[in-house]
Amino acid sequence: MEQQIGAVDTTRAGPRIRGARFQLAGRFSQGIGPVARRACDGLMSLIILFLLSPLFVSIGLLIKLDSAGAVFYRGKRIGKDGKPFWMYKFRTMKDVMVDTGPRVTARDDPRITRIGRILRDTKLNELPQFINVLKGEMSLVGPRPEDPRYVELYTPEQRRVLSVKPGVTGVASIIYCNEETMLSQDTLEDTYINVIMPDKLRLDMEYIDRRSFLVDLDILFRTCLVLLPRFTQAALEIEELLFGPLQHFIRRRLSWFILDLILGLGAVSTTSLIWWRASRPPHVRWPLSVAATVGIALMFTFVNQICGLQHSMWSCASGQEIIDILLSTVISTTLLLTINGLGPGGLSFPLEMILLNGFFAFVAFTATRYRSRLITGLLWQWRGLWGKARKQG
């Protein structure tokens, strides 16, 4: 049995959610245990490998045509609890030179083949690691697995990154997506060991402290963006990754999004009921009507989101912000009128019905956001009337 390198006490390395901003993400992560995480990793890797199998074949043929040697490269890496495993990649170097030289690579490394350079620039050489995920040796998100030679240099605190499974992507791999351009052949290992590796480990430990299901989803989303040339050059801070757009939406917008959707459905349903009772159409296409109801409600909800109406500070809002609600409702109603005019005859709604729906939506959105002020105002009015009645009595 191979020696376990850098084994750690995983009972002391559990996730620690710091600060109020990460409390919601922590709640989501509590329901995602090791079994559920493993099932998610296995299912996603299986789907990805199946969908990308034609791409795997194409890349394999290009590698074979470009240079002699195997299609895949197997590198020894250190996984969870210090257990060694073989990590798969598409071979990007000349076969006779793969296991020679330093364990890190600069962009001008002479060992890299022509196809290998393209695979490295597009990160396609990393795709075979989904095989490691399927085998349970890696996770979709986590600290990047390191060579045993460099793991030996970890401090006791840095070995905490071995408390979780290594990942195909992670915070450090996104921030250092252009790592090869930061290295020079002359000072390759010195720069990596003394500058880059300590900072990557710091980032990975910060990820472990804040690890959650939502954080992982945000990191996967950012990984997809980083693969695009425009976003590869953009500098990212760790806070942007650990408190990304998904967590921001869940923490600050989701409750209002759901409430607006319910209000939109209520407005459309109320309008439809009034219109049906008034005109009593002979034929009602219920599936189409239900789909139109949901679509209109979603339109109002998304326009509210775009206009910035789904924030949590309405208790401090001024009366002037009613104009924002009115503007959002007008935009939604205008879009609905435009779509209604362009649609086929079976989808057309009367103009009055659309305008009535916009009115109900505006009233519902306004009353909900200013409910505390409305209730307070009514209470003060009631107290005033009650006080006058007592004095007169």
Could you name the key traits of this structure?
single chain; 393 residues; mainly alpha; 2 domains; two-stranded antiparallel ribbon; two-stranded parallel sheet; 17 helices; 5% strand
Shape: elongated
Helix/sheet category: mainly alpha
Instruction: Please state roughly what percent of the residues sit in beta strands, choosing from under 5%, 5-15%, 15-25%, 25-35%, 35-45% or over 45%.
Output: 5-15%
Number of domains: 2
Q: What would you call the quaternary organization?
A: single chain
Give the strand line-up of the largest sheet: 1-2
Count of helical stretches: 17
Biggest β-sheet description? 2 strands, antiparallel
Rounded to an integer in angstroms, the radius of gyration calculated over CA atoms is: 29 Å
Distance between the termini: 94 Å
Write the H/E string, N to C.
HHHEEHHEHEHHHHHHHHHHH
* Count of extended strands: 4
Describe the structure.
A hairpin with a 5-residue loop joins strand 1 (72-78) and strand 2. The N and C termini lie far apart (94 Å). The chain has helices spanning 23-30, 34-51, 53-66, 114-122, 129-135, 148-151, 171-175, 188-209, 213-226, 229-232, 238-242, 245-252, 254-279, 286-306, 322-342, 351-369, 371-392; strands at 72-78, 84-90, 139-141, 167-169. It contains 17 helices and four strands. The longest helix has 26 residues, at 254-279. The protein is mainly alpha-helical and 393 residues long. The protein has two domains: 10-244, no CATH class; 253-381, no CATH class. The protein has a two-stranded antiparallel sheet with strand order 1-2. Strands 3-4 form a two-stranded parallel ribbon. Residues 1-31 have low confidence and may be disordered.
